[in-house]
Design brief:
four-stranded antiparallel sheet; Jelly Rolls; disordered C terminus; 11 strands; Arc Repressor Mutant, subunit A; about 25% strand
Length: about 220
């Protein structure tokens, strides 16, 4: 299996065509349906391997949050490290969802996404917001209205700022050693030259498409 498939935003990877997919560029969201709605199982980008045979979850689907290129893989070609990467991400999302206050939960999710998919600068992190407020609500098991209200509150506090081209700025102060975001990202922040020099999310994903499979702590 060496064919590469090109998918549009909000389309789905065909799990009947292949049980396992390697993401070459873009971002996908793994979800499952519950009686009270959709739950998010993880977010995956370039170089990651995803598929229902890894988590064995009923009603499993892979939704493209951006335009995506992906290649089908044989199950026997997937190392055990792929399973560990999925377990680690589920653990990180579980920690985020354990927060008592919704604003704190949302901020931790945004900092985690920024650490995984964003670009670092001296004053914070910028990443392209490929998730809608409804997507965020489903990830955190809350409502879209609550997410919108919390986003406005975080913006008033100066913790986040919406930029042009659907980019989101997260202040450096939002990151701490207790966050699921990588501490290395905070320690290695470099000066922004300009907002226009920040690589959009899809570009970041494409630039990592040739990295070897590894456990991701981002």
């Amino acid at each position: 299996m060496s064919n590469t498939y090109y998918l549009q935003k909000r389309s789905h990877l065909n799990l009947l065509r292949a049980d396992v997919w390697r993401i070459e560029s873009g971002v996908v969201r793994a979800t499952s349906w519950l009686e009270d709605g959709t739950t998010t199982l993880g977010f995956w980008g370039a170089g990651d391997v995803v598929g229902n045979v890894i988590l064995r979850q009923e009603n499993y689907q892979l939704e493209c949050l951006t335009s995506v290129t992906a290649s089908p893989l044989l199950v026997e070609n997937c190392p055990n490290l792929v399973m560990l990467a999925h377990i680690h991400q589920l653990q990180e999302l579980l920690i985020i969802r354990s927060c008592k206050r919704i604003e704190e939960m949302l901020l931790k999710l945004l900092t985690w996404l920024g650490g995984r998919f964003g670009e670092a600068g001296e004053t914070g992190v910028i990443f392209k917001t490929f998730l809608t407020h409804q997507d965020l609500a489903e990830t955190l098991n809350t409502t879209r209205v609550t997410i919108t209200r919390s986003m406005k509150q975080l913006e008033r506090q100066g913790t986040i700022r919406h930029l042009a081209n659907r980019q989101l700025f997260i202040a450096r102060s939002a990151y701490s050693s207790s966050d699921p975001a990588p501490q290395k990202l905070v320690e290695n922040l470099t000066t922004f030259t300009s907002h226009s020099s920040i690589i959009p999310l899809v570009g970041v994903a494409a630039s990592r498409s040739n990295r070897p499979l590894s456990v991701s702590y981002r």
